């Protein structure tokens, strides 16, 4: 699922009276948004336990990552509505929208979120603070954000000609291979649509307690009706896949989603990754090799050591099929770090994927490049609910 349309909210405005209320209360809401988010999820899962069992990732809930994501998104969106100089959070909204469609989220579920979120706001801030006027102002913030997302998500569903939410498919595991002690690849076959290079699929498995848990994995290769994913064993879903799923078994996968997508064109391509962040890069390299691309391609990868570099063989084989390819590996056990300034990135499209600290460091290095060596565009993603916090 993919669309070139962007979920912008720059043309959306609060009424003047409500804008002043949001401005006045934003510091208070922002200071308490972490507690509000915790109470919101507790209340929502109490009222709708099926959401925690079958839709939300329990690992992210235990770690608090999902709550942090909600806090960041609501506060960022509200700030944009009341400050004309604040950046339009297009990237934030795009990532949320793609994640939602990869989970089959539909319009009716926004009402569930609204009811429980505002109950949490009143619980934390108190009824004397959340007056009828304050509630109306923040309700308008929520529904503007919801409307932008709902419109964008409907366009994503329509891009694959499916009804809203109809993204889950029963797929058969036709191949399973261990790349390292911690990374395994799975090839899945079923009624699957074509993925854009760099996209992911949500994998659903039923655990021992009966809960269906979901986790997103990048698609590293595809054929008609087939996705291949690389899975690092970390958390409930990946552990279940490694220990319990065999060739011939049936699991669930969603139609491909994700906004970290290789942009068509003639610009040089620069892929920069760390650890299992190599997976979307393999998907992009596979596309470039399969289509016979002659775009100059540079691949820079950092890992703890060569021994744990799970996709070294795959990326090497793919790069050998590209006529103008440059590759550099950096291994921390050798004291090596990626040196962006050592490479010519002028006019290139750069794609980043890895952990938070890694991406922040690479983005700082990119920003420090002189203008004549700067890339044309930078796209990034990490395997966390909080990737928009990097903006």
Number of strands: 11
The biggest sheet, with number of strands, parallel, antiparallel or mixed sense and barrel status, is: 6 strands, antiparallel, barrel
The percent range for strand residues is: 15-25%
* SS-derived structural category: alpha/beta
Strand order of the largest sheet: 1-2-5-4-3-6
What does this structure look like?
- The chain is an alpha/beta fold and 391 residues long.
- The protein folds into 3 domains: 16-159, Globins (Globin-like, Orthogonal Bundle); 168-254, Elongation Factor Tu (Ef-tu), domain 3 (Beta Barrel), CATH 2.40.30; 269-390, Rossmann fold (3-Layer(aba) Sandwich).
- The chain is 41% helix and 20% strand.
- The protein is built from 11 helices and 11 strands.
- The strands form 2 sheets. It has a 6-stranded antiparallel barrel with strand order 1-2-5-4-3-6. A 5-stranded parallel sheet has the order 9-8-7-10-11, sandwiched between helices.
- α1 runs antiparallel to α4, α1 (16-47) crosses α6 (109-125) and α4 (65-82) crosses α7 (132-159).
- It starts with 15 loop residues before the first helix and ends in a 10-residue tail after the last strand.
- It is an enzyme of class 1 (oxidoreductase).
């Amino acid at each position: 699922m993919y669309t070139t349309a962007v979920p912008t909210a720059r043309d959306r405005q609060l009424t003047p009276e409500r804008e002043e209320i949001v401005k006045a209360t934003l510091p208070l809401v922002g200071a308490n948004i972490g507690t509000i988010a915790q109470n919101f999820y507790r209340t929502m899962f109490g009222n709708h336990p099926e959401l925690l069992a079958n839709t939300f990732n329990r690992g992210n809930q235990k770690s608090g990552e999902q709550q942090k994501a909600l806090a960041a998104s609501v506060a960022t969106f509200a700030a944009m509505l009341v400050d004309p100089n604040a950046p339009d959070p297009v990237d934030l909204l795009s990532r949320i929208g793609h994640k939602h469609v990869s989970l089959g989220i539909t319009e009716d579920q926004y009402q569930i979120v609204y009811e429980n979120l505002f109950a949490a706001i009143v619980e934390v801030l108190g009824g004397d603070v959340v007056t009828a006027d304050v509630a109306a102002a923040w309700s308008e913030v929520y529904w503007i954000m919801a409307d932008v997302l709902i419109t964008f998500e409907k366009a994503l569903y329509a891009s694959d000609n499916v009804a809203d939410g109809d993204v889950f498919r029963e797929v058969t595991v036709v191949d399973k291979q261990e790349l390292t002690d911690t990374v395994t690849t799975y090839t899945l076959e079923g009624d699957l649509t074509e993925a854009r290079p760099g996209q992911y699929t949500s994998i659903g498995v039923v655990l021992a307690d009966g809960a269906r848990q979901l986790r997103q994995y990048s698609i590293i290769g595809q054929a008609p009706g087939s996705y291949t994913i690389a899975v690092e064993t970390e958390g409930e879903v990946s552990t279940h896949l490694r220990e319990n799923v065999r060739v011939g078994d049936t699991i669930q996968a969603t139609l491909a989603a994700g906004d970290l997508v290789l942009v068509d064109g003639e610009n040089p391509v620069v892929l920069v990754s760390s650890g299992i962040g190599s997976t979307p890069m393999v998907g992009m390299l596979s596309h470039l090799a399969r289509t016979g691309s002659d775009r100059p391609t540079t691949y820079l990868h950092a890992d703890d050591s060569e021994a744990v570099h799970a996709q070294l063989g795959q990326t090497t084989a793919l790069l050998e099929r590209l006529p103008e390819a440059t590759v550099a590996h950096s291994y921390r056990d050798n004291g090596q770090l990626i040196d962006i300034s050592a490479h010519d990135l002028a006019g290139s499209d750069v794609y980043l994927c890895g952990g938070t600290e890694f991406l922040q460091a690479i983005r700082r290095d990119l920003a420090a490049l002189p203008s004549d060596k700067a890339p044309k565009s930078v796209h990034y993603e990490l395997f966390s609910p909080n990737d928009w916090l990097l903006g």
